[in-house]
Amino acid sequence: MNAPALSLSDLVVERVGFGIFVLDREMNVLMWNRFMQDHSGLAAEKVVGRPIFDNFPELPRAWLSRKLESVFQLGSFAFSSWEQRPYLFRFDHDRPITGGVDFMQQDCTFMPLTREREVVAVCVTVSDVTHVSIVQREREEAVAKLQEYADRDGLTGIANRRFFEARLSDEYTRWQRYGGDLSVLLFDLDHFKTINDQFGHVVGDGVLREMAQRVADVVRVEDTFGRFGGEEFALLLPGTPLGVAMQVAEKIRHTIGDAPVDVQGVSVPVTASVGGAAARAGVPTYEVLINEADAALYSAKRQGRNRSIAFA
C-alpha cells in the first residue's frame, strides 16, 4: 500500500530553508521538519511525541520554558535574536572556521497556534543567520580597529592628543563631581631638534618610538599616556596627588635618560624635562590644568632641563 501523498502545505513545511517544530504545553514535540532533522541528525519519528529535553538536554530549559509560557499566556508572538542568545540548538554550521563561531547562529520566532481562541501549541521557527552574524561581527571588529587607529598616534602607537584630551575631560568632570586627586604631567625630550639635525629624522623617529615604549612599560593600566605632538608627551594620573605625581615624573625622567637610545646603529643620549600640575579648587577647566603643567615644563627647561618641576 502506498504512503499517502503529502499536501502542498506539508511539502512547504518539509522543504523550507529554516527549522520548524511545534511544542505543546508539556514541551512534547508535535512536529519536526526536514531542516530540524537534517541539522540535528534525528528523524521526526525519534523526536515527535517525546519531551524536547529528552533528546536535547543541553537546551536552556529555564529560558525556553519562560519563552513558551509567555506565548501560551499572552497568545502573542515572541522573538529571540542571535544577538541576545547566539543559538538555541547546537547545530553545526557550514561557514569557515575563521568565522569565529562554534555553532550555527540562530534567530527564533515563537508563534501561538490557537483552537477556539485558546493557545494549544507553539510553533517555533529556527533561522540560520550564521553568515549575517559573522559579517556583523567582522564589521564591528573593523569599526573598533578604525576607532583604535583614530585614537592612536601613528608613529609611537600611544594615545594621540585628541584621545588624551577626551580622557582628561572625562576624568576632570569626575573629579569635579566626586573630588579626590587628579594630576597631569607634560614632558618633552631636551634638544630634540639637535638630534634630528645631527642624526636625521629616521633616527629621531626611532628615538621617539623607543622613548614612548619605555614610558608605556612603567605607567599604570589606569593612566593615559599620549603624544601631544612633536617631542611633547602627556601622562594623565587619576587618583594621584601632585606629590606622588612628581615622584612618577622622576621615575619617567630616569626611564628616559638613564640609558642612551640605540637606533640605526647610532647611540643617542636623551634626557627629558617634566612639568606637573594637579586639579584643585580654583582650576575651572581641564585646559587650565594643561596650561599649568605646560608652564611648569617650561620652567624646568629654563632652569637647565633634565629635571621635574611642579606648578606652584
Automatic annotation (TrEMBL):
**GO terms under cellular component:** plasma membrane
Q: Which residues form the PAS domain?
A: 12-75
Q: Name one GO molecular function term.
A: diguanylate cyclase activity
Its Gene Ontology biological processes?
A: cell adhesion involved in single-species biofilm formation; negative regulation of bacterial-type flagellum-dependent cell motility
Please name the top-level EC class of this enzyme: transferase
Task: Please name the CDD domains in this protein's record.
Answer: GGDEF (cd01949), PAS (cd00130)
What InterPro entries does the database record attribute to this sequence?
A: Diguanylate_Cyclase, GGDEF_dom, Nucleotide_cyclase, PAS, PAS-like_dom_sf, PAS_4, Rev_trsase/Diguanyl_cyclase
The reaction(s) this protein catalyses: 2 GTP = 3',3'-c-di-GMP + 2 diphosphate
Q: Which residues form the GGDEF domain?
A: 180-312
E.C. numbers: 2.7.7.65
Record Pfam families: GGDEF, PAS_4
Q: Which SMART domains match?
A: GGDEF, PAS
Against PANTHER family, the record matches this protein to: DIGUANYLATE CYCLASE DGCM-RELATED (PTHR45138:SF9), REGULATORY COMPONENTS OF SENSORY TRANSDUCTION SYSTEM (PTHR45138)
| Protein name (database record) | diguanylate cyclase
